[in-house]
Specification:
By secondary structure, the chain is α/β, with parallel strands linked by helices. The strands form 3 sheets. The protein has an 8-stranded mixed beta sheet with strand order 4-3-12-11-10-9-8-5. Strands 1-2 form a two-stranded antiparallel sheet. It is globular, with a radius of gyration of 25 Å. It has 17 helices and 12 strands. It is 46% helix and 8% strand. A hairpin with a 7-residue loop joins β1 and β2.
Length: 527
């Protein structure tokens, strides 16, 4: 096992070295997955300084979680390919792109895992005390395989179950560096006497949940909520699991998520170095100074209790749909700030929208390897390498989206819609990009195409960006028509939805247009 680990590190190092050499000596770039994103300049000869270079990444784990919140007992491809239907070839291209851009480091099975470790369908009836006690009843009725059915953290059987399952994964995968024992998504923390007694022992029985600042904390409520912070008991339980795992695997790590009702720094408990504590944060919201300052202060405080500190960045979650949201300078600065606070492990949840937000991820790879990386230099390199004679037009295209995200304070300062419908996160997008703004971006791409006339490779890359722009245009158009329909309704129910009797002929006409626009959007997506 030790020799296998050494070989794995050497193999990764060779890949990193070869790709670095191809970039530095030959100008090769991989801007996004697939053939159109590959840049291989032609050379008549090669001149490169002889010498020895030693490179080491600043972050030990540099992960793009292409599976997002999809976790399966088998593997990512079972969900994304087998269930959702994404082509396996494309997933493999994404993996190659990550390796070529020096993502990687540790191999960790992360994410919410409790439902995989102890599915309520299997143990709910036979071992109900594995699950949280809520209002006097065990939450042992199966939910959706990801939410609720939380563990009773004080129950020794839960600790043993987590430890045994983690060890089984390490046995099955010799190259696995870490395994997550993270709780399920959603709330429902245990209220049994033993768990509450743990809170009292740790001095945390009166600690409120985290303040309501950003979207990560939505389900945790605000500071006036009756729900208490359970960070101390979650940390205590993770340490107990890690001790048992270490008896069999002394060189492996356990991962836990610092999330929801356990994002507030602990009162008295500290994680052992063999447990990675992964703090969930939304760096793309940091043009909002209150959100940025609050989160960075909390991360610095949390680092005192978490020696193996990680962040989980929501690049897409909380910012659906995957239309353009470019926040390059926030990528550069947040990665640097996290590193200064002691973070050495980094994972992010994007989708695969490389035609809209791929530049965020290209930049991220370079910043995670070297935290002194400058966004300006990466943007210049990205546009020069990929778009040649159209470099200036493409820089203007990307910078316009980036500037718009900053101008709207990470999308938080937008005109208020006259109607508000619960469960409609798309409404703000009706004001994020005006028709005039999108027309200007279309003009940028048209100018880029004129400048690159005759260069088929560059034109192919511009066409890739046009697909992303078309996606954003169609989404914004359908959203605007939907809002127009809602505005024409006369009365609404308590959910903000139009009451059927109040929908007159004008609203019906608007609804027909909106349905048509959404049909056009979905036809484009499926294509």
């Amino acid at each position: 096992r030790w020799l296998g680990d050494v070989y794995k590190r050497q193999e990764a190092a060779v890949f990193h070295a070869v790709y670095w050499f191809l970039e530095e000596a030959l100008g090769v770039r991989w801007l996004w997955p697939g053939a159109s994103g590959e840049v291989v300049p032609k050379h008549q000869d090669l001149c490169f300084e002889c010498g020895t270079w030693r490179k080491k990444p600043d972050y030990a784990w540099r992960n793009i979680g292409l599976g997002g919140s999809m976790y399966a007992a088998s593997d990512r491809d079972t969900m994304l390919h087998g269930v959702l239907g994404l082509p396996l070839e494309y997933l493999q291209e994404c993996d190659r792109w990550c390796r070529r851009n020096r993502f990687g480091g540790l191999k960790i099975a992360d994410g919410h895992r409790w439902s995989e470790i102890a599915p309520a369908e299997r143990f709910g009836q036979s071992d109900p005390d594995l699950y949280a006690l809520i209002d006097g009843k065990r939450d042992n009725v199966p939910m959706d395989g990801k939410h609720y059915n939380q563990p009773c953290l004080s129950n020794p059987k839960d600790i043993n179950r987590m430890a045994d399952y983690a060890c089984s994964r390490f046995d099955a995968q010799g190259d696995l560096d870490g395994f997550s024992i993270a709780l399920n998504d959603g709330g429902g923390q245990c209220q049994c006497d033993n768990c509450l007694e743990l809170d009292r022992q740790f001095g945390a029985e009166d600690i409120q949940t985290i303040e309501h600042v950003d979207k990560v904390t939505d389900e945790a409520g605000d500071a006036n909520s009756d729900q208490k912070s359970v960070t101390d008991r979650v940390i205590w339980q993770a340490n107990q699991v890690a001790k048992k795992v270490a008896e069999r695997f002394s060189n492996r790590k356990i991962l836990m998520i610092l999330y929801s009702f356990f994002r507030r720094p602990p009162v008295s408990q500290k994680l052992g170095a063999d447990v990675i504590g992964q703090y969930c944060v939304m760096g793309h919201s940091f043009w909002n100074e209150e959100a940025r300052d609050t989160e960075l202060a909390r991360i610095k405080e949390m680092s005192k209790s978490v020696p193996s500190f990680a962040v989980y960045e929501y690049y897409s979650n909380g910012a659906w749909p995957e239309m353009h949201r470019l926040f390059h300078r926030l990528v550069e600065q947040s990665v640097r700030d996290y590193y200064k606070a002691g973070v050495r492990y980094y994972s992010t949840q994007p989708t695969m929208g490389f035609a809209t937000n791929g530049l965020n991820l290209f930049l991220l790879g370079r910043c995670l390897w070297d935290t002194t990386t400058s966004y300006d230099s990466v943007l210049e390199d990205y546009c020069r390498s990929g778009f040649g004679p159209a470099k200036v037009s493409m820089q203007r295209f990307f910078e316009a989206f980036s500037d718009r995200w900053k101008q709207t304070v990470s999308g938080t300062e937008l005109p208020q819609s006259p109607v508000a419908v619960s469960g409609t996160p798309w409404l703000p997008s009706t004001h994020l990009y005006t028709g005039e703004f999108l027309a200007q971006r279309r003009s940028d791409l048209a100018e880029a195409s004129r400048l690159a006339a005759g260069d088929q490779e560059v034109l192919g890359r511009i066409e890739f960006m046009e697909i992303g722009l078309t996606y954003t245009e169609k989404y914004c158009h359908a959203s605007k028509l939907t809002l127009d329909c809602l505005e024409k309704a006369d009365s609404f129910d308590d959910q903000g939805l139009p009451i059927a009797a109040s929908i007159g002929s004008e609203a019906r006409k608007a609804a027909k247009l909106a349905f048509g626009a959404w049909g056009d959007y979905w036809q484009f997506v499926r294509g």
